[in-house]
Amino acid sequence: MMLKQMIKAGTGWLYLDTPAGRRLLRGTGTILMLHRVVADDALADLPHRKELCIGMQAFDRLLLWLGRHFECVPLAELLAPDGPTDGPPRLALTFDDGWRDNALHAFPLLKEHRMPASVFLSTDFIGSTRRFWWEAIGETLWGSFGEEARERLCVRLRRHLGPPDELRAAAPEQPRSLALDRFLQRLKSLPPATLQALADDCPSPAEPHALDWRQVREMEASGLLRFGPHGASHAILTGLDDASLRAELHRSHEAIATHCREPLPVYCYPNGDHDERVRAALACLGYGHALSTRPGLHHQRQGAPLSLPRIGVCQHSARQPALLGWRILQGARRHVAPALPALHTSEASGR
Hints:
- The chain has helices spanning 3-16, 19-24, 41-44, 56-69, 75-79, 101-113, 133-142, 147-157, 173-187, 192-200, 213-221, 242-259, 276-284, 315-319, 321-333; strands at 28-34, 36-38, 53-55, 71-72, 90-97, 117-121, 225-229, 266-268, 289-291, 298-299, 311-312.
- The protein is an alpha/beta fold.
- The strands form 3 sheets. Strands 1, 4, 5, 6, 7, 10 and 11 form a 7-stranded mixed beta sheet that branches.
């Protein structure tokens, strides 16, 4: 581990394992943002996967660590206005998108640890064969479906954004994965319809990307998981006109209300993007809380309930949870600045 990472990990451990450090988190709530839990940690280690994917071994380690340091509560309980302001620091787990591996790999470990969580579904994908574009395009470019499929997609992509030479199959694994990660970020500039059309033309995986409603009902029946909306098509809400925005919000809202017994009254913005217009449209639907992707801690008496902060968890920080402790305490530092050491970083993901 690099020196800076060692200092962060040591600081994270120190503050979460001492009374003085835990006092800094009094009156706060930490909301963690996760996406996928995959079977093999090695699959999650590559740069183009490790921001969204956590391996089962790392996830198990993370849950053990969270149980030692936090009171892990359902999101609705964390957001309740009359929640306690003393006692151990409180934390809630959230998952975005509605990946099928949430049921296959995350759910068994959540049950084993008796850990509650909230899952926010992009409802158009649930129970369908529709694919998340970043996964379909990314894995095709990675070569998961063979060289012929990869080259065919490269030809189509050259009409929009030329894939970099580093994506060629013969390149070394790590630089190729880094190049793919950067290229997928660039693709976000393309229209959503273009990205979905490219994804739909990629080879079909062995099983759907997303959960189906039977799996949603099974997880909800456990009493550990609740579900809320994360858009319908996962379109970036700020880029929609007024009519499309209303349709997107209503469609996701109605799907959750139809299929879930106790829908969460919390919205989760796709990609975290929102503005005053989006927040006003959500308020018209009766939502009092919404999740962003900006880092920070929730304070019951501070902040904007329709722009709640979260701390993202990646493979690296799940495997080294003390680094996650560092990021959580950076959130506390914004409110109790003199109490924490002045070790500066611009990193947003704990890497």
